[in-house]
Amino acid sequence: MTPVDPRALRDAFGCFMTGVTVVTTTTAEGKPVGFTANSFSSVSLDPPLLLVSIANSSSNLTAFAAGKGLAVNILAEGQKDVSSTFARPSDDRFASVYWRQGPVGSPLIAGVSAWFDCTLEQVVPAGDHTILIGRIGAFEATPAPGLGYYRGAYVTPAQTAAQLPTGPDVVITAILECEGKVLLQDDGRGGLTLPMARVGREGVQVALAQLIAGTGLPATAGEIYAVYDDVAQGKQHIAFRCPASPGTPAKGSFVDRSPEGVADVTDPAMLTMLERLAAEARMGNYGLYFGTHEQGRVQRIGERKNP
Predict the structure, then answer these.
(1) Which Gene3D superfamilies match (predicted)?
(2) CATH of span 167-300
(3) Distance (Å, rounded) from C-alpha 64 to C-alpha 82?
(4) What is the pTM assigned to this prediction?
């Protein structure tokens, strides 16, 4: 049998388009460590398992093989710099990224497309690599499209598609209100956001119903509160006020509508909308906003245009 050329074999493997992940764990001393990998795969739904592989030459091998768990962070299209940071030798790869400890215990990077926090299920030696099998204890997926990798280069399908002539994406926002409070969730960037979803072919009503159902709260689709365009992002936003009954949300929590309660909302247009909601709630006189994410007008309920 003819010996295999490692360089040619690597090029052949590169013909398979993959995503890009950063795999993380903590050392016995509690230091976060991680590496960039595209050798990630789902393994099983029951039990929930995944796998990644790490080179035996990696300085992080001992920390991962002897650790209690690991997290797989699927990078978003705008995180090429994060991929590069964790692919290069560095004393502290986490110094330049925002991260937090996951519910199972491994570091989670902000702004990713999805993350999986796992306990270490099995370590399997495999040639010049070691396969790490993780049992998923917690996970989250976001609307952010994932970063791709093909033939040794990054690919960004969603960003490329966004440059083609097309109409705006429609994004709906659910303002779930209960006893003078609103539901806010982690936006993945160190701040808070209202529940949001992109409208697909199923239409606004179905998308809104699914968005509300995903909160785990008894709530109903209410009136439209704001319609505005974000021309720079190519998006049209529709926000609905959705009365909710008391309950425990699937994620996030209810906060006061006060400036202090919504201070961590990172989107300026959303923050302005919530500030208007608080002011109108005090007056008991609500309006409907039309415009852009920067400026527009509020039409009061019952207001009529002159003929």
Answers:
(1) Electron Transport, Fmn-binding Protein, Chain A, Nucleoside Triphosphate Pyrophosphohydrolase
(2) 3.90.79.10
(3) 20
(4) 0.54
